[in-house]
Amino acid sequence: MIHHIELMQSSDYKNKLAQCIHCGLCLQACPTYAVFGTEMDAPRGRIALMRAASDGRLTPEQFNDAFTTHINLCLACRACETACPSGVQYGALLDGAHKTIVANHAPGAVENFVRWLGLREMMPHVERMKFVARLMWLYEKSGVQKLVRAINFLPKPLKAMEAILPPIEPRYRDYRAPAPAIGEKRGTVAFFIGCIQEAFLSSVNEATIRVLQRNGYEVHFPAGQTCCGAAQLHVGEYDLVRQLAKQNIDAFLAREYDAILSNAGGCGATLRTEYAHLFHDDSAYAAKAKKFSAQVQDVNEFIAAHYTNPPKGNVPVRVTYSDSCHLRHVQKVVKQPRDLIKSIPGVQLVELKLPDRCCGSAGVYNIVNASVADDVLAAKMADIATTGAQMIVASNIGCHMQLIAGARQAQLNVPVVHVMQLLDMAYQAAERKT
Ligand code: SF4
Ligand code: SF4
Questions:
Q1: pTM, 2 dp
Q2: What's the CATH architecture for 6-103?
């Protein structure tokens, strides 16, 4: 018997399924279809599986094997949603399928331990994440990393985690005081610092804050903020996600800001699109969650709309931009990062052949489905190589780490930077000239 299938049998879910007209126009947009070439690893095939589950045509064995396998192999990149001419809400359909899989899955002792440690005891506590990052910095600097990579003995999930470790610089800002506007003050924004972002690539946060300051914004870092809950949501830890979301909502709504800003496409998508949904039937938090989500913006979007002080420094470099799926397909922020990159004197932006193609990061996909993620990443790196880019520009922490690993594995020897870091370089170049 398939448990808790009701969600996929609701009339709303069935109506969403019925929107698919099987045209197949989404297939070429799908990265897992590109890897496997099989219908069941393409959006149309996955929707057919969802329809079979919804109609009660799957046996428990088929649900546990075919359905779970092919749904779990989906990167949730939502490129198919953008490509679909019929307006199929693939994200909502996938969400229902995931929830049903989670409800039918009893995690074993090891999985429970990993979830408890990673999702509950680490990610929501940025100081603990920083402690781990400092240990990883030692691991990198001491030469142990080189040895581990040369011997190549780690079990698969650990090897996948190790592969995406970025070069760590464990220098952290004291977030108790706001960062003042530089020049004329135009407003006050709240900044979401993230968990992995802050611990492992704090230089991206530093650059983001400086760019906001230079454009006249005082940047606040509301105390009590925590991890966005995206990873916890993915594995169905709904109570924990609600707890984290409440913490963030309370922290950011404690005073009024012009906007709440995130520089990570994935986190921003969760803050912006999931929180209101999480509390739709919670009388105490429904309105607050809506208010919070309505204020969240990606920093590219915000700077592009409030770009009062474009940098004047020259950065003579050929770059390519790799979209974050959640920034592009969920938040629909496509043009703004490109406009910002092109605004920098000296920068030449060369577009990828498939700019909307996922890099294979996809939350924890590159750890739990490492070999498929590697194939997706290899295709991305081949596309990047043809641009002749000397630098890869990203806009999400997961993609950023994945692309660093990809550049190393493909021996491209090019750095990966966030859009805000590229802007920051241009401001610094101008300062050096004066
Ligand atoms: S979300 Fe991405 S991986 Fe999943 S079916 Fe759509 S295009 Fe394919
Ligand atoms: S999801 Fe959209 S594009 Fe894909 S087969 Fe269905 S209707 Fe066509």
A1: 0.95
A2: Orthogonal Bundle (1.10)
